[in-house]
């Protein structure tokens, strides 16, 4: 194929005069007719093969017909040979691989993977044309060429038939199927250009999309080293893969080792960047600043570095680019979207004084008021304020949670008030009593007549959601806020942070009814999204009007916390009756208010076993309704007997884990109640408190270990994990070695108490300090 002056395929010699187009059409018509005849013959032969299976067993008739068809076969074979010779006479033109001028890129005009066709030209003639050309030249870049076979399906079927010794246009299944596919594709018209079937042949736009499947380091190591043509496309400023920068954490060490930017070629015009790192990477910061004129989007993943107060030294001690002097800024005129999930990066961007005049969307994680190094106002929240103040066009500010104390609340809201274009703020932690300062700051722009028609949104986080006997003050504050939001065309969205508290621990002469209106709507949003609920007990129960408002479909954790000094009877009486209701009848019905709770934490250090009411009681019905329960944790107990009694209230088929701390007393009944054995659910694991427990993380005495083993014999869990710390005064011996031997002896004594029921699968005994020895033991039920 010739190449025209403009780089496109030029017309062939026959077409230049305009008189040979008809000759080509007539040739195609004849070939189409031949193909039609051969297709009908193939179909007739295939149908005959089917009929043979159902033919009468007339051997003489079949033999006579076979003889006649043998003569036809000889004629068809001769015709096939003659047809092949004639088709080989179709003129062919070698393909030109002339370099196209102007853009200094190589264009080789070859047939496309899917050739475009004009209406009225059948697919069959095209297949025949390509079948006649047994190979075509396909470029593999930089002037190297290879021959690639391009036989069509039809030609392949014919060749297969010939190799079997049969008729090349005959009755093979493959040939018939190919003919059917060709007839079904006759009306198709394919016009897209997909480039050459090789890496250098990919169009520039497709090459650019390859950056989505590899990191920048991989692209540098591979695409730029294939050949010159691939390198040109990969490094192209408009379509190349290096318009996008991406780095993963497993590549961080390689980038940390880079000290000169000349080692990173092709990275001066980055448009989007995706960075995953455990801290600030110096060369990456400099790369982004070198691309400040073109960078449009930046994402930084959460880091795993503990902030140590030193902003300019990475975790390995490597100096990173220092803070810029006051008044010297790095402008990013095109950067519109930032998602910075690392507080260390947030601080560093601030000290490098990035100026963000075009920034419209900023998303951060959980900026802190302090960084832990000093009590001053120097945490990542200060960095966030700096970025907000340098982004006059910002429209969206989103975070997981933005919190500061009352001393800095006014300063932060003032910074928001200096953002004239802001329309969405999400994740702002605000107590009901601090809403007025926020309203005043935003009213500076939102209350303007020209801004009232603009839709706005406030996503507020409530970290101290307490629903008590009297909520009238909070309801009044929310009523004012709701009215203001309606006036400025602002949608309010609320979500809880941490636990939501139902406070029944305070005495009230008369519990007030649940507020309606705005407060009721806000409570509804918080309750629907709450995942952790705390029920404080020992005072007055909530008013029955709360019954339909306090249903927690997503709560996974429930904590029961009696108030200090409350009697057992006061604790049980303070549980609202409607909180114990079930969604249905019978013992298998789930709690109406807590249908999804999986973890139950109990703090019953002041309730004695002798004072617990016999079941059923409001306490037993509340615990028994938790049908999704998997884990129970006794954070603190007055005695193990109280724990066993509370476990007998649980109505699930099995508990995955029970966590129990050493109790305050050794209270234990003279005879174990029968209910403990047949009502307590099977327990998969019995363990001491986890290291993040509230009070202790292990059993700290010999007496405590012995009572724990008594509990094991009573509850019979499938496995036991015991950790105890023994003081030196409980161990016999005058030196560390003898006391360690005494700890070993005590461990075997413990095993002797349980070996009838359990097998020891692991254990250890070690000295952990000058006066303490740690004993661990793992038991499995026989």
Task: State the major sheet.
Answer: 11 strands, mixed
Mean pLDDT across the residues is 76
Which secondary-structure class do the elements indicate?
Answer: alpha/beta
Head-to-tail CA distance between termini: 84 Å
> In what range is the share of β-strand residues?
15-25%
Low-confidence stretches: 1-20, 94-172, 185-192, 306-313, 371-378, 692-697
Helix segment count? 23
Give me the side-by-side strand order of the main sheet: 13-15-16-17-18-19-20-21-22-24-23
- Structure summary, number of beta strands: 24
Dominant shape:
extended
Helix content: 25-40%
Report the C-alpha radius of gyration, rounded.
41 Å
Structural account:
Among the domains are: 185 residues, no CATH class; 85 residues, Translation initiation factor 3 (IF-3), C-terminal domain (Translation Initiation Factor IF3). 34% of the residues lie in helices and 17% in strands. The protein is extended. It has 23 helices and 24 strands.
Concise summary:
The chain has 782 residues and is an alpha/beta fold. Among the domains are: 13-197, no CATH class; 698-782, 2-Layer Sandwich (Translation Initiation Factor IF3), CATH 3.30.110.10.
Which descriptors apply to this entry?
782 residues; 24 strands; nine-stranded parallel β-sheet; disordered N terminus; extended; 17% strand; alpha/beta; Translation Initiation Factor IF3; eleven-stranded mixed β-sheet
Walk me through the topology.
Layout: H1 13-16, H2 21-52, H3 59-87, H4 123-132, E1 135-139, E2 145-149, H5 153-163, H6 173-184, H7 204-209, H8 216-222, H9 228-234, E3 244-247, H10 252-256, E4 272-275, H11 282-290, E5 297-300, E6 330-331, E7 337-340, H12 343-351, E8 354-355, E9 361-364, H13 380-389, E10 396-402, H14 406-417, E11 424-429, H15 435-446, E12 456-462, E13 465-467, H16 472-487, E14 490-496, E15 500-503, H17 517-529, E16 532-537, E17 557-562, H18 568-573, E18 599-604, H19 618-624, E19 631-637, H20 640-647, E20 655-660, H21 674-679, E21 683-687, H22 702-715, E22 719-727, H23 736-754, E23 758-769, E24 772-781
Parallel strand pairs: 3-4, 4-5, 5-7, 6-8, 7-9, 9-10, 10-11, 11-12, 12-14, 13-15, 15-16, 16-17, 17-18, 18-19, 19-20, 20-21, 21-22
Antiparallel strand pairs: 1-2, 22-24, 23-24
Helix pairs in contact: 2-6, 4-5, 5-6, 12-13, 14-15, 16-17
Region (Disordered): 1-28, 118-151
């Amino acid at each position: 194929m010739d190449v025209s002056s403009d780089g496109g395929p030029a017309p062939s010699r026959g077409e230049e005069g305009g008189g040979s187009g008809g000759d080509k059409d007539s040739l195609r018509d004849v070939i189409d007719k031949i193909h039609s005849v051969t297709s009908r013959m193939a179909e007739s032969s295939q149908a005959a093969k089917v009929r043979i299976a159902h033919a009468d067993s007339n051997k003489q008739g079949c033999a006579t017909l076979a003889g006649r068809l043998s003569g036809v076969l000889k004629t068809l074979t001769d015709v096939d040979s003659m047809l092949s010779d004639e088709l080989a006479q179709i003129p062919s033109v070698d393909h030109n691989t002339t370099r196209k001028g102007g853009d200094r890129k190589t264009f080789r005009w070859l047939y496309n993977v899917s050739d475009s066709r004009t209406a009225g030209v059948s697919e069959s003639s095209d297949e025949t044309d390509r079948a006649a050309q047994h190979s075509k030249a396909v470029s593999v870049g930089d002037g190297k060429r290879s021959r690639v076979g391009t036989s069509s399906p039809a030609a392949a079927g014919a060749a297969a038939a010939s190799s079997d010794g049969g008729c090349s246009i005959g009755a093979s299944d493959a040939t018939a199927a190919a003919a059917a596919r060709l007839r079904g594709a006759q009306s198709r018209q394919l016009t897209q250009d997909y480039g050459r079937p090789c890496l250098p042949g990919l169009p520039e736009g497709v090459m650019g999309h390859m950056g989505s499947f590899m990191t920048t380091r991989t692209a540098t190591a591979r695409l730029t080293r294939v050949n010159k043509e691939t390198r040109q496309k990969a490094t192209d400023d408009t379509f190349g893969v290096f318009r996008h920068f991406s780095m993963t954490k497993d590549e961080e060490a390689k980038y940390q080792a880079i000290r000169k930017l000349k080692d990173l070629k092709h990275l001066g015009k980055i448009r989007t960047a995706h960075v995953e790192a455990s801290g600030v990477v110096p060369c990456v910061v400099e790369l982004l600043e070198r691309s400040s004129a073109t960078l449009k989007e930046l994402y930084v993943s959460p880091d795993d570095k503990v902030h140590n107060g030193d902003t300019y030294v990475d975790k390995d001690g490597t100096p990173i680019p220092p803070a810029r002097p006051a008044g010297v800024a790095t402008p990013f005129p095109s950067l519109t979207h930032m998602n910075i999930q690392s507080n260390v990066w947030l601080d560093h961007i601030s000290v490098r004084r990035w100026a963000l005049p075009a920034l419209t969307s900023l998303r951060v994680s959980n900026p802190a008021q302090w960084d832990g190094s000093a009590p001053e106002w120097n945490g990542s929240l200060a960095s966030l304020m700096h970025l907000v103040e340098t982004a006059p066009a910002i429209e969206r500010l989103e975070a997981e949670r933005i919190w500061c104390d009352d001393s800095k609340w006014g300063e932060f809201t003032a910074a928001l008030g200096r953002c004239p274009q802001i329309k969405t703020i999400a994740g702002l932690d605000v107590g009901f009593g601090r809403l007025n300062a926020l309203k005043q700051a935003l009213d500076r722009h939102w209350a303007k007549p020209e801004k009232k028609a603009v839709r706005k949104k406030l996503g507020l986080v409530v970290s101290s959601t307490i629903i008590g006997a009297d909520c009238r003050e909070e309801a009044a504050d929310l009523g004012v806020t709701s009215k203001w939001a309606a006036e400025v065309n602002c949608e309010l969205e609320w979500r809880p942070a941490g636990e939501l508290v139902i406070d029944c621990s305070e005495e009230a002469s008369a519990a007030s009814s649940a507020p309606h209106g705005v407060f009721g709507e806000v409570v509804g949003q918080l309750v629907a999204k709450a995942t952790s609920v705390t029920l404080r007990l020992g005072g007055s129960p909530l008013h029955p009007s709360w019954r339909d408002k306090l249903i927690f479909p997503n709560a996974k954790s429930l904590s029961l916390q009696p108030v200090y000094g409350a009697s057992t009877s006061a604790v049980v009486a303070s549980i609202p009756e409607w909180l114990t209701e079930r969604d249905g009848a019978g013992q298998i019905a789930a709690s109406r208010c807590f249908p999804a709770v999986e973890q139950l934490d109990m703090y019953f250090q002041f309730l004695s076993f002798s004072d617990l009411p016999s079941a059923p009681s409001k306490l037993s019905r509340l615990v028994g309704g938790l049908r999704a329960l998997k884990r129970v944790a006794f954070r603190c107990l007055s005695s193990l007997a109280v724990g066993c009694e509370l476990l007998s209230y649980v109505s699930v088929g099995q508990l995955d884990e029970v966590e129990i701390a050493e109790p305050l007393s050794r209270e234990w009944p003279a005879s174990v109640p029968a209910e403990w054995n047949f009502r307590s659910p099977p327990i998969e694991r019995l363990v001491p408190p986890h290291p993040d427990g509230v009070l202790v993380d292990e059993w700290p005495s010999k007496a405590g270990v012995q009572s724990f083993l008594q509990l094991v014999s009573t509850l019979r869990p499938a496995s036991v994990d015991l950790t105890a710390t023994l003081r030196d005064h409980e161990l016999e011996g005058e030196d560390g070695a003898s006391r360690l031997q005494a700890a070993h002896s005590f461990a075997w004594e413990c095993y002797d108490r349980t070996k009838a029921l359990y097998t020891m699968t692991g254990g250890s005994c070690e000295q952990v300090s000058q006066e303490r020895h740690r004993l661990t033991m793992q038991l499995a039920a026989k």
